[in-house]
Amino acid sequence: MMLEVRGLSVSYGGIQAVKGIDLEVAAGELVCLIGANGAGKTTTLKALSRMLPAKGKILYQGQSIGDLPVFELVRQGIALVPEGRGIFGRLTVEENLLMGAYSRDDGAAIRRDLERSYHLFPRLAERKLQQAGTLSGGEQQMLAIARALMSKPRLLFLDEPSMGLAPLMVEKIFATIRAISDEGVTVLLVEQNAKLALEISHRAYVMESGAICLSGASAALLHDPQVRHAYLGE
Ligand code: ATP
């Protein structure tokens, strides 16, 4: 098991936003977490990547990571692409990518991975010297994903990669997420666009009011009448 979560709870002040959830992601899986606005998806991902204090057990490759600082998670192979992307707007595309490799000291391999990023996202190759803050929304999302990959993650957390993007760009980003998964990176994807998320993932969890209300194979959930009605707008 790559990630095993037991009884994860997160509170903001007195309000419990995540209510003791369990979830797991096997090595090589692409798992999505879907649900309505405010269900607690982003909060869950922030807790798993240690950006928020939480209660419960978080095991990564069998080891508890509940007390590790963020930089140590990155060193151990966990990367987060946050909602809103968090790129460095004043730095160039290439400088942003190199920031993603800050925990590494294998210079030649870093150069190779830089080329791999440009291969994965040719749009970034054309713009390597452009200030990242001037990229379009979709290009910034590509950069955020490419930067996370520069840390050579085994486990990648993605928060709402479709947010604010035009449909064609969303399809492109999702195809790339699938390609990253096919290359062997384990992915946990939080997504508002339930249909696309279910289409590219192996398994899914549905979250409602801070709890997991449904889970299963994505292909099965895509055909589940309850899911179709509540989350696919049918
Ligand atoms: P969305 O898809 O709209 O981003 P979400 O499922 O990711 O929704 P969260 O962002 O995790 O939901 O929010 C879960 C609940 O926690 C919401 O009720 C939200 O208002 C609340 N919440 C989130 N961040 C904070 C905060 N910093 N302080 C107080 N409450 C918060």
Rg, Cα atoms, Å: 17 Å
Structural class by SSE content: alpha/beta
The low-confidence parts are none
Q: Kindly give the count of domains.
A: 2
CATH superfamily of the largest domain, by name, is P-loop containing nucleotide triphosphate hydrolases
Strand order of the largest sheet: 6-7-8-3-9-10
Bound molecules: adenosine-5'-triphosphate
- The helix-strand sequence is EEEHEEHEHHHHEHEHEEHH
- Write the CATH architecture name of the largest domain: 3-Layer(aba) Sandwich
Largest sheet: 6 strands, mixed
CATH C-level class of the largest domain: Alpha Beta
Average pLDDT number = 93
Query: How many strands in all?
Result: 10
Task: Please tell me about this protein's structure.
The chain folds into two domains: 3-77 and 153-232, Rossmann fold; 90-152, no CATH class. Strands 6-7-8-3-9-10 form a six-stranded mixed β-sheet, sandwiched between helices. It has a four-stranded antiparallel β-sheet with strand order 2-1-4-5, with helices on one face. Helix 3 (93-99) runs parallel beside helix 6 (137-149). It has helices spanning 41-48, 70-76, 93-99, 107-120, 122-126, 137-149, 167-182, 194-200, 218-222, 225-231, and strands at residues 3-12, 15-25, 30-35, 55-60, 63-64, 78-81, 155-159, 186-191, 203-208, 211-217. With 234 residues, it is an alpha/beta fold. The chain is globular and about 45 Å long. The structure holds adenosine-5'-triphosphate.
SSE inventory with pairings:
Elements: E1 3-12, E2 15-25, E3 30-35, H1 41-48, E4 55-60, E5 63-64, H2 70-76, E6 78-81, H3 93-99, H4 107-120, H5 122-126, H6 137-149, E7 155-159, H7 167-182, E8 186-191, H8 194-200, E9 203-208, E10 211-217, H9 218-222, H10 225-231
Parallel strand pairs: 3-8, 3-9, 6-7, 7-8
Antiparallel strand pairs: 1-2, 1-4, 4-5, 9-10
Helix pairs in contact: 3-6
This protein binds adenosine-5'-triphosphate (ATP).
Family: Belongs to the ABC transporter superfamily.
GO molecular function: ATP binding; ATP hydrolysis activity; branched-chain amino acid transmembrane transporter activity
InterPro entries: AAA+_ATPase, ABC_branched_ATPase_LivF/BraG, ABC_transporter-like_ATP-bd, ABC_transporter-like_CS, BCAA_Transport_ATP-bd_LivF, P-loop_NTPase
